[in-house]
Amino acid sequence: MSGRFRRLAETDRPPVSITVDGKEIEALQGDSLMVAMLASGSALRDSEFGDGRRAGFCLMGACQDCWVWTTDGDRLRACSTVVSQGLAISTHQPEASWPNLA
Amino acid sequence: MSSPVKSDVAIIGGGLMGSSAAFFLRRRGLSVTLLETDKIGRQASGTNFGNVRRQGRPIFQLPLANRAIAVWRQAHELLGSDVEYLQSGHMRVAFRDRPENIGKMEDYAKVAREEGLELELLTGNALRARFPWLGPDVAAGSLSAMDGHANPRLAAPAFARAAARLGAQVCEDTRIVSAGKVGSDFELMTEDGRAFRAGAVLVTAGAWAGKITAWFDEPVDLVARAPTMSVTEPVPYAIKPAIGVMTPEEVESVYFRQVARGNIVIGGSTRAQSYPDEYRAYVLPQNTMTQFEQIRRLAPALARLNVIRVWSGIEGYTPDELPVMGASPLVPGLFYAFGFSGGGFQLGPGVGETMAELIATGTTDIPLAPYLLSRFAAAGPRAASLHDGSRNPLGEVPLSLSKETRGG
Amino acid sequence: MAEPRVIVVGAGPAGVRAAQTLVKAGIRPFVVDEGRRAGGQIYRRQGEGFTRGYDELYGTEADRARDIHETFEALAPSIDYRPDTLVWNVAEGRAWLSSAGETEAVPYSALIVCSGATDRIVPVSGWNLAGTYSLGGAQVALKAQACAIGHEVVFLGTGPLLYLVAAQYAKAGARVAAVLDTSPFSARIAAFPQLAAQPDLLWTGLTLTLALKRAGIPVLSGVTPVAIEGDPETGVQAIRIRTAGGSERRFACDAVAMGWHLRPETQLADLARCTFAFDEGTRQWLPVTDADGRSTTPGVYLAGDGARVLGARCAEVTGELAARAALADLGHPGDADRRRTLLAAKADYATFARGLARAFPWPHALAAAVADETMVCRCEAVTAGVLRDSVSAKGAVEANRAKAFSRVGMGRCQGRYCGAAAAEIIAAARGEPVVQAGRLRSQAPVKPLPVGTARSGR
C-alpha cells in the first residue's frame, strides 16, 4: 500500500529494513521510526478508545500520539526514535496477555 | 451580617466521609449543610488509590467495611452517577523473604470468614497459573474476589451532588474558622463572616480535623502526609484484581490496579510530608523512583509502560494510623469521623451511613468502641506518636494487620 | 568554593545563547536537550546522512540557524551537554534528568528553562483522524526528514507559521491543496503599525502569501472550519469549511496541518512552583517574570518561547538576558549597556508579537463553540459534550475540576494540545470570562516516564 508520508528529497540514503505487522518494509537510514512507518503505511497504532487509527500529530515529542509497540512488548515513541535495522513493530494493540511478555 | 444558615446537622469537611454522611442524613430526612474549605473531595478522598478492599483491614473494621461494600455495589443507581466501581477482586501478596506472612494470611482468612469475608489462598503453580505476570519474588496471594476498586476523583463529588439533589446545602470554598455553642445549638463562623447554626456537628475534616477538635478541648495530633501516586498510559485491560503487598515495611508496600479504560494506577511505598495550612502536597521525585523499583518487583511487566502523571493529596493520620469515629464524649451533639487515611476510601460510604444513623437515632449496630477518640487520651494527651510502633491502644485488636496492605 | 552549577534546559536559540553567555563568564553549564542535536525545533537539524543546505532548510533564517549551530558546536568543550535527555521533574533545587532508561538528580544554583513552544490548537471535528498533524509537526517532517505529511495537504489555522510552512511545502514540491486562515484579512490591516516593528519579518510574511497565490494555491482568510472528513481506518479524505462569505467549500486532501500560533511549554516552570498570571492579549496563562527573565522562584529563570511566545529571534535575546540575570544573582559583574540593548530589542519583538496576536487572533469563540460530538482531548478521546457535562451536570467550575470529572487533559500529552480550547469551552459553559477557567496544573513527569527507569549510577 502507498504511504501516508511523501518523500520529497534525500532519497539516496542507504536502505534499512524493519518489520511492521509482520511485513518487511524498506526505510532509509536516518529516518525517524515514524517516517519509516508512514512512508509505506498509513497509521502507527490504534486509538485505545475505539475511534480509529492514529498516525501521530506533533512530530516533536510533545503530543505522545505516536507511541508504538514492538513485537517484544516494548514501547517506542516513533517520532523521536531513529529507525534501526531489524526493528519489529506492531501497529495494533497487544493482546490482553501483554503482562506475560516480561 | 446576614442571619445564620440553620440546619439539623452541619458537616465540616467535604471529603468522602462528609459527602456520604450528608447523603445518608438527607435520606433520613434531616436538614444538612456540608461545609468544605475548598472543593468537594479534592484531598485525601480524591487523590487516594481507590481501593475498595475489605481484606487486610483490622478485623474490627469488617462490620463497617461490609456495610460500605453494600453501598458501593449499588452506588451507581443510588447516586445516579458512575463512580467506576469495579468488583474485580483484591489480592494481597507475600514475598518469599517474608514467609511468616503466609501463615498470617491463613490466620487472617479464618477470622475474616467469621465476619463474612471469603478469602482464597493461592501459592505455587495455582498462583502462577492465575497471575503469570507476578514477579518471581511473590510467594503467595490472598484473593478477595468480592472486593474491587473505584474512582476516587468521582466518588465524593457524586455523593455530594446526590446529597444536594436530596436538599442538602453544599457549600464549597467555605472555610470554618471558629465553632462554639450558642444555647443548645452550635454556631460555626466562616473566614468571610458567614454563620451556620446546627443542632449537631459532624467533623469529617481529615488532616484538618485536629484543629476543630481542639476548639472543643479534645485535641488529637494528626500527622499530615502526602501519598505517592502514579498512573500509566492506557494498555489493554489485562489485570483484574487490585494487588497490594503485605509487608511491615512501608517502602515495600506498593499496590496497583488497572482501570477498565486500561490505565494502571500505582500507589504506595514512601510518602512525603504534606502542608495542610498551605493546602499543598507534592510528590517527591525520589519517592516516585522508589515506587517504580518496588512495583517492578511485584509485577515486572509494568517496567515497559510509561507513567504519564503523578499526584498526591493531603492525608491526616492519627497517632496509631487508625480512624476516629463516633460521638464526642465531652460535647453533646458533636460527632467525629476522621483519620481514615491509608484505608478510608472503601469505608467511606459505610462511615457516612453509620454516622447518619448514629446522629439521627443515637445508636448504630456498628461497634464503635475501637474508633473512639478517647483511646489517645487514655495514654495522656499527645503522648502517642506515629513513629512509636510499640503501643497498641486497642488491646486485642490485631493492629499490625492494618499496616500490611495500605492504600485507600 | 565549588563553582555554582547552572543548568540550561533546551538547546534552541534561547538555550544556546544562554549557554554561550554563561561560558563567556567562565561558567561551565549543564545543557540538557531533548533533541539529539542542538537547534531546538525552529533550527532543528536534519537527520544524519541528509545533505540539504542551510538555505534550503531554513530559508530567510539560514544565517541565524547556521550561527546558532556553529556557536553551539564551538561551546562543546566548555559545557556538559546532555542530548536526548528529558528534565521530567524539578524539586528541592534539583533537576531530574531522564535518558536511556536512567534518571539522575542534578542539583543547581540556577536553572534556566528554555523549553520552547508547541502549536495551539482549535479542535475541529475529525481532527483525531490519521493524517491530521500540527503545523509545527508538518514543518518538522519537511525540515528534519524531507517528507510531506501527505500527498495533498491542507493548511488550516492562523499565524505566520501557517503561511511559512505552506510556502515551504510548495517550494519543496509538495502539493498544497489550500491555505485556510481563520483570521479575517481586516485584522492584518489593523495590526500593520505594530507589525512594522520588524519590517523584514513583515516583508517575509507578505512575500510568502504572494508566492502561495502565484503558485495557484487557494489562500482563504476568515474561514470557519466545519469538519475534517475521512475514515477511522484510512484517515483524512477532505476538509469542509465555511468561507468568510458564508458559503461552504470542500477541499479533498489526505493530510491537514493545523495550528493557531503557539503556546509556551511551561510545565517545568510550574513544577518549580513559579507564579503564573493570565495574559489578556494571548488569553494564555504565563509564568510571571521580570524583564530579565527571573521567575518568582529564586534561582529559576525563564527564556525564549517557553516563557512567552515572542519568536525565535527574540529567544536569542531573552536567552542571553536570562543568563545575565542568573550571573548577576550569582555575584558576577553586569554590563548595563548590553542589558539596555537587549531589553530594547526585546521590547521591539514584544511589540511585533502583539501585532501578530492582533493580526492572527486566537479564535476563542470558535474554540468555545466546538460541537458536542467533536473530540477535544485526542489522548483520552473526550468530546466537547462530555467536557460541557462536567460543568453543567457535575458542577466543575474550572479546568482542573473539569479534568477530574471528564478526563480532558488527563492523557499522555497532559493537556498541551487540548488545554487552550478546553478552557474556552469551560468558560463559555459557565458564562464566565476565560480567566475564570484557570489553567491545568502541571503534573510530573513532564513527558511519559518508563516505570523501568532506574536511578543512574553517575
CA-to-CA gap between the ends of chain C?
Answer: 22 Å
In terms of structural class, how would the helical and strand content of chain A be classed? mainly beta
- Can you give the helix content of chain C as a percent range? 25-40%
Please report which band the strand proportion of chain C falls in: under 5%, 5-15%, 15-25%, 25-35%, 35-45% or over 45%: 15-25%
Shape of chain C: globular
Structural account:
The complex is a heterotrimer of chains A (102), B (408) and C (458). By secondary structure, chain A is mostly beta strands. Helices cover 6% and strands 27% of the residues of chain A. Chain A has one helix and eight strands. In chain A, strands 3-2-8-6-7 form a five-stranded mixed sheet. In chain A, strands 4-5 form a two-stranded antiparallel sheet. In chain B, helix 1 (16-27) packs parallel to helix 7 (152-165), helix 1 packs across helix 10 and helix 3 (62-73) crosses helix 10 (348-361). Chain B starts with a strand and ends in a 6-residue tail after the last helix. Chain B is 27% helix and 25% strand. Chain B is built from twelve helices and 22 strands. With 458 residues, chain C is of the alpha/beta class. Chain C contains 15 helices and 25 strands. In chain C, strands 3-2-1-7-21 form a five-stranded parallel sheet, with helices on one face. Chain C has a five-stranded parallel sheet with strand order 9-17-11-12-13. The model of chain C has no long low-confidence stretch (mean pLDDT 96). Chains A and B meet through loops of A and loops of B.
Helix-strand layout with pairing:
The complex is a heterotrimer of chains A (102), B (408) and C (458).
Chain A: E1 6-7, E2 15-20, E3 23-28, H1 33-38, E4 45-46, E5 53-54, E6 67-70, E7 75-77, E8 88-90
Parallel strand pairs in A: 2-8
Antiparallel strand pairs in A: 2-3, 4-5, 6-7, 6-8
Chain B: E1 5-12, H1 16-27, E2 32-35, H2 44-47, E3 51-52, H3 62-73, H4 75-79, E4 90-95, H5 100-114, E5 120-123, H6 124-130, E6 138-144, E7 148-149, H7 152-165, E8 169-171, E9 176-182, E10 185-190, E11 195-203, H8 209-215, E12 223-226, E13 229-232, E14 242-245, E15 254-258, E16 264-268, E17 272-275, E18 280-281, H9 285-298, E19 306-311, E20 315-317, E21 324-327, E22 334-338, H10 348-361, H11 374-377, H12 399-402
Parallel strand pairs in B: 1-2, 1-11, 2-8, 4-14, 11-22
Antiparallel strand pairs in B: 3-7, 4-6, 5-6, 9-10, 10-11, 12-17, 12-20, 13-16, 13-19, 14-15, 15-16, 17-18, 21-22
Helix pairs in contact in B: 1-7, 1-10, 3-10
Chain C: E1 6-9, H1 13-24, E2 30-32, H2 54-58, H3 62-75, E3 80-82, E4 86-91, E5 94-99, E6 102-107, E7 110-113, E8 117-119, E9 132-134, H4 135-145, E10 147-148, E11 153-158, H5 160-172, E12 176-181, H6 185-190, H7 192-195, H8 199-214, E13 219-220, E14 224-231, E15 235-242, E16 248-252, E17 255-260, E18 262-264, H9 267-271, E19 276-279, E20 284-287, E21 300-302, H10 312-329, H11 336-359, H12 364-368, E22 375-377, E23 382-383, H13 384-392, H14 399-406, H15 419-430, E24 449-450, E25 454-455
